[in-house]
Amino acid sequence: MTTSDQSAPKPANIYTAVATAEGGRAGHVSSSDSILNLDLSVPKEMGGEGGSGTNPEQLFAAGYAACFQGALGVVGRRMKVDTVQSEVTAEVGLQKSGLAFKLDVELRVRIPGVDRATAEEVVKTAHTVCPYSVATHGNVDVRLVVLD
Fold it and tell me: What is the C-alpha to C-alpha distance for residues 93 and 129, in angstroms, rounded to an integer?
């Protein structure tokens, strides 16, 4: 099943990641190139046993943080702002929403050596560039926090 418009031509991807999950939240995930090869565990907070595996929310947080930091670099270069030492921490929460679940995200960004007003502008602009931000726009509450 697909939800895209089949009459419109598909744009060319510049990169395609492929990953497979088996066993759900207490299973295993791997990428098609085998670089990603991780066990999953259900956190105790969700009624699981905890364990040494990761979980989808941690994977999403890691991906979002890395992607957003990359977007900061793109925007920084365009604005002639040095973001090389920037750091992004993504906090991803899972919430009940009726019978469904939803994500809640806070991105905490530090750009050393950059004044607060400039940092806020870079972060705000990066939020319009980052593919994760674009994908979650209107679907996930995302808070941007600029740290000193």
Answer: 22
Please state, in angstroms and rounded to a whole number, the distance separating the CA atoms of residues 62 and 74.
19
Long-range own/partner contacts, residues 96-103 (CB < 8 A, 24 or more apart): 102/140, 103/57, 103/60, 103/136, 103/140
Which tokens in the block code for residue 57? 């929310």
Q: CA geometry: angle at 101 spanning 100 and 102, to 5°?
A: 130
CB 46 within 8 A of CB 94: yes
Query: Taking the model in full, what pTM does it have?
Result: 0.92
- The string of pLDDT tens digits covering residues 31-71 is 999 999 999 999 999 999 999 999 999 999 999 999 999 99
